[in-house]
Specification:
Layout: H1 2-7, H2 9-43, H3 53-67, H4 71-77, H5 79-86, H6 91-116, H7 120-128, H8 133-144, H9 146-172, H10 174-184, H11 189-218
Helix pairs in contact: 2-6, 2-9, 2-10, 3-6, 5-6, 6-9, 7-8, 9-10, 9-11, 10-11
Family: Belongs to the binding-protein-dependent transport system permease family.
Transmembrane segments: 20-44, 56-78, 84-104, 148-171, 191-213
Keywords: Cell membrane, Membrane, Transmembrane, Transmembrane helix, Transport
């Protein structure tokens, strides 16, 4: 088994790189979109800074609808959009668009939960001191919610790792592609188990890193 692992080292390195690129780009884009949506879900809700029930319910409904669609269906359904944005629907580039489309609404919910944990009394105190709504969002809500935001992003990244493996089945490359194409279709169990082990290690590293950063911010 060790000899086989050494022989396939280049394959694993290539697939790890593809997975890292997919997850890396997707989490950056998804985080920006998800954080923006999360902030909007909080400040637009009734009784908050920019309360607007109509816009809030529309945004809330759209996010719920997108979140209810399985990743495989999203990947197929937005093929024209993916083709228009990145020029291809296969490979690593072709996977990033559906991964972002799938993950951003999920992150928005995680961000919403994290931001709602901020004590409303603290917000009211800053309002009484004359802080603007923009200052409250940036310097109070986002700042106070940093530990929970980091944990949420760690969870989202782990979900992206799983989705990227699923994208590999659709021709995106990465560890998922290696596990299916070499491990399953060619019936090489060692390749499949090694790919799964690498995915597990990535998840453990991401979660541990997220826990450590979050704990540091709480101090």
């Amino acid at each position: 088994m060790l000899n086989k692992l050494i022989e396939d080292a280049d394959l694993y390195v290539k697939s790890l790189n593809e997975t890292a690129v997919m997850v890396g780009y997707s989490i950056v884009y998804s985080s920006v979109i998800g954080l923006l949506l999360g902030v909007l879900l909080v400040v637009l809700r009734p009784g908050h800074l920019y309360a607007n029930p109509v816009v809030y319910h529309i945004l809330n409904t759209i996010i719920n609808i997108i979140r209810s669609i399985p990743f495989i269906i999203i990947m197929v359904a937005i093929i024209p959009l993916t083709k228009w944005l990145v020029g291809t629907t296969i490979g690593v580039k072709g996977a990033i668009v559906p991964l972002v489309f799938y993950t951003a609404p999920y992150i928005s919910r995680l961000m919403e939960t994290a931001l709602l944990e901020v004590d409303h009394g603290v917000i009211e105190a800053y309002q009484a001191m004359g802080a603007s709504k923009r200052q409250i969002i940036i310097r109070v809500i986002l700042r106070e919610a940093r530990p929970a935001v980091i944990l949420g992003l760690a969870i989202a990244t782990i979900g992206l790792v799983g989705a990227s493996a699923m994208a590999g089945v659709m021709g995106a490359g990465g560890l998922g592609d290696v596990a299916i194409r070499f491990g399953y279709q060619r019936w090489e169990p060692d390749v499949m188990y090694t790919s799964v082990l690498l995915l597990v290690l990535i998840v453990q590293i991401v979660q541990s890193l997220g826990n450590w950063i979050s704990k540091s911010l709480r101090k």
